[in-house]
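Example 3.2
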Amino acid sequence: MSDAVGPKVPPSLSFTMEELERFRVVYGGTRPYRDRMSTLIWVDMFAMEATYGINPNEILRSIDELEGLASGSRIKPPTQFKFHPLNGLWHKHFFAARFIAHNISLGLSRNGLEKIVREVLGSSVNGVITEEIVAELAHRVTNEPIEKRAAEGKLTGEWIIYVEHEGRNFYLTCKPHSTGDQVIFDDIARHCRRDFPDILKWISEAAATS
């Protein structure tokens, strides 16, 4: 897909607008907010599925939650950007299996792994490491951090970025944390105007009231 017809995608990934529309129909279905999703965010989801194996439903589940169509998620609540150039925009995390390792690392924090190892190995008799101890260690290292972050509503993934306008959310893009703020803004400014001609005005108004 060339830049002449839409947003940039990884060089190794190509598709037609007809394929993108089929993708949108399959995953967008009858979701009531489908018309408030930019072409850019559909391209992003297409690329994330093709490149990283992220199921689009995992992203849409977080949007369902924002729309009040789903509940029970233990993902971080949405947050508004406060600094230029993204001030006025909001971001909501979505969670997928590929983010488990990162959440385990965050959940263990600085000394969490050492603490678990000390507690589990302390139960050994005469320093003998049994299969049961190894199994308990593996379980605690992998399960406890995820369970802790889930209970605290802190599971994290990548970002869904959107703007509020006249009481409704307009979903613009989904990006990794590592994407620069200016890159995100430039993508939105360049590509989302095709779907929402006044998008820059909406962002400016939202920033003025944030």
